[in-house]
Amino acid sequence: MLDQIKKWLAKADESYNRWSSTKWVKRLNITTSVLWNLAILLAIIFVASGVFAASVGAGYFASLVDEEKLRTSEEMRDEVYSYEETSELYFDGEVYLGKLRTDLERTETSLDKVSQNAINAVLATEDEYFKEHKGIVPKAIFRGLFQDVSNSDSQTGGSTLTQQLIKNQILTNEVSYERKAKEILLAMRLEKFMTKDEIMEAYLNIIPYGRNSAGTNIAGIETAAKSIFNVPASELNLPQSAFIAGIPKAPFLYTPYQAQGGKLKNDEGLQPGIDRMKTVLFRMKETEYITEEEYKEALAYDIKKDFRKNEPRAYDKYYYVTTELEKRATRIIMDVLAEKDGIDPKTLNENDKLYEEYAILADRAVRADGYRIHSTINKDLYNAQQKAKDNYKTYGTTRNGTIVNNEGEEEEKEFPVQVGSMTIENKTGRILSFVGGRDPEIEKLNHATQAYRSIGSTVKPLLVYGPAIEYGKIGAGSPVVDVKFKKNDNGTMWEPANFIPTSEQGIMPARDALAQSQNLPALRLFAQINDQMPINYMMKSGFTRVEEDENYIPSAALGGGIEGSVEELTNGYAMVANGGKFVPSYMIDRIEDDEGNVIFEHKSKEKEVFTPQTSYILTDMLRDVFKDERGTAGRANGLLKFDADFAGKTGTTQETRDVWLVGYNPNVTMSVWLGYDKEKYSLAEFPNRDLQPSTRVNELWASLMNTSYDAEPKLIGTKKKFKEPDGVVTRSFCAISGLAPGGACAGSGLVISDLFNEKVMVPSKKDDSLTSGSYTTINGSRYAALSSTPREFVISGGTGVSQAFIDRMLAPYGGDASKLFPGSSRFGKVVAGASFNVDGSAPAGVSASLSGNTLTWSNSPSNDVVGYRVYREGSGSPLASISESRGNSYSVSGAGSYYVVAVDITGKQSGKSNIVSIEKEKPKPEPKKDEEESKPAPEENDSSDDKKDEETKPVDDGKKDEEKEQDKEKDKEKDKEKEKEQDKEQDKEKDKDKDKPTEPEEPEEPEEEEEKPKDEE
């Protein structure tokens, strides 16, 4: 067998040699050899070129990533998870408010809380081989590179989810080969440090999804699901998932909402997004994530009905709340960040550069770190108060003015009457609600927290009466002095007055002065305690703009120069309601980070400002502001729909630029302020058009309180009463001196009782100020009668006071002692005992006139006139004596001539006035003798005029001379009797005058002005 094979091979070899030895075969061999060698050479060249190109490419790639630092696993994870998450706000009680104001809203979620439909839609659309690749898909990269080099119209892209995550979180969106090279390198590296689920979860939280129904940019699938379909990501159905998965390719084309306000696009605007949804569904079918049946069913689904309708952002609906919480949260986070860096709060506040640095860091953190900010604001209470604020229609006239805008140009602007209000829980300092303004579209300033204005007479309890009680200067009913004075203030004469400038009530109880908000008693009392630094009580009560120097400004007692916000004023009165313990107000209860860790929790710290005794006495006095018929908050109290133990104070600033009302019960304190943002405008400028400012603030306060009661009846309408603490006692005292009752005081009916703090003051020294006294009046004021003062002008039997008493009560400013006890006051029978400085000259005369039987005369120009005497010409004694306080008229009877003289306090008379006369009646014609004798004798008429007429009759009237003389004597006697009767009438009038007020009474206020705060700077 072997031999046969060898023979076959030899024969084949021989045949080949014969064939190859032919001429054409030899030529073919040469050509083939050359081609083979060329092929080998070309292969060598191709391989060498490939190796060279690969080396160059690798070198280029290496150069592109040369400066990219080698990140550790921890660094890469930190950067991937460093995406911004919008902080969220909450009302009290975990009630969701909304997201913090930001350019991009995002809420983090976990992969197990995302619908599988949504995950599959993303995989089918963005990265079909996500579960197989190691961060990149080479063929996709080369395809993308080829398309880029060839400038192909079709750009399919080649980025995996991992690459997109790197691009968004670690690199930038820059279009360059360098960025792409780094992206590839980092994607492969990231796949070594993170699992597929971690990469998918991070991707779903960072990817942008266009806009939401409020027009805000959004990112993250949880935010997209809630913002577009109003469902969490875990509940997205198949069509919804496909729609959302398609958005990232062109977020603002495919989003269903417009940029301005988040309004839903029309059908034409929605169609690109719907078409993109259909493409995603097709890819899901092709990759077998869904069946043909599911695909068709999803295509037929009406996605438009699921789109969330336009809804205002929390920033729009709750502008004042969101901006205020943002501001306060930023300040809190500043301290948190500084503390992490080892910087104490004091250093932070004192170092301006450091403060500015941490303010920027905190602002970024609050917007991007996904904090959960829990506030104290009661949503129901807040909404109720906003409704009441909007429903009140009589704020007043809206003014027009100019402002300088951000470009430095003047522009017209409306200035409505603005409002600020705040409600605080007394014991905790929690801010339960507030009213920031009429409309943030008109004015964004928060008038409850950021506007600082003069607080007017609301300062009086905190700066004057409270400290005076604390110092033991007064009790609740101690006498204070409401008498005008003059003070030289750096060369300018200062003459303060009450809200009603003519009002001077003399000595009055402190509680009445406070309830009626009289200015003069507050100024005098403040001067008496000034050296004890009462300003410290304001500073300890949270008024941040009050300084120690204001203690020495007299007008501070009326609010002059004392500024505060509505929040500060409310907090100050809550201190009084809280038994004198000041608890700083706050609006943020706690802050949690994005993982639920509490990084801040408010802790209240209280400090004593007033003792419980002072606080209760002050509260009892302030009850009268609401309950007393002359209390300045009586109108508000009458409008309340419920009963509660309210106390408080009103305030009006100079020229009525601001009006205030603050009221509190044992649970809460609420303040209301009204005014214009431009302080030059007065609330009282249009009296015929607008309600009185005090009426407006009373009505609005009552309206806010009533709606608050509707929202929280147990809190607002508490039945609790302020409890009288130990150390508060009721004691009797002399009402005009404040001293313990003496015999004279009791005998004069001047003993009253009221509350005292027995730890610092109870009346103990016996009153010795009273004496008996007689007085006269000059220009309506009372003065001690002189020995030479005519008795008909002296009122006797009154109670007088000593000069020492007068000096003590009028200190330190002095004043007219005659005004201490005006006739209209409850102490009208007490005489101040002031001496009048006489000039020693007779008074100037007057001019008289006659109208019918009424004789009138002018006032004497002299300033010491106590009254006037009326004379009949030819008579040596006066016909009548008229006190100057009774007026300048007298009714005369009978014909005759009359004149008037003025009488001064020393008894001197002026010269006669001009003489005025009543003419005698003309005699009737004399009848004939026979007729006269036949007529019956006429009835006797007692009037002097008739008697004088008889004297004109003829002497031969049938009567004897003796009878005539007797008739004359009878006439004289009758005249004397009439004069006596007139004198008796005058004496009766004098007696009546003893009990009559000798000062002109205050004119009655119009009904709507009865509740006006009687205070001004």
Q: Can you walk through the features of this model?
A:
The chain has about 1000 residues and is of the alpha+beta class. It is about 40% helix and about 15% strand. The strands form 12 sheets. A 5-stranded mixed β-sheet has the order 2-1-6-18-19, with helices on one face. Helix 4 runs parallel beside helix 10, helix 10 crosses helix 12 and helix 12 (about 265-285) runs antiparallel to helix 13 (about 290-300). The radius of gyration is 50 Å and the shape is elongated. It starts with a helix and ends in a 22-residue tail after the last helix.
Q: Low-confidence parts, pLDDT < 50 over ≥5 residues?
A: 929-966, 986-1017
Helix content: 25-40%
Average predicted confidence as pLDDT: 84
β-strand percent reads 15-25%
**Content-based structural category:** alpha+beta
| Spatial strand sequence of the major β-sheet | 2-1-6-18-19
- The whole-angstrom Rg is 50 Å
DSSP summary: helix tally: 32
Main sheet properties: 5 strands, mixed
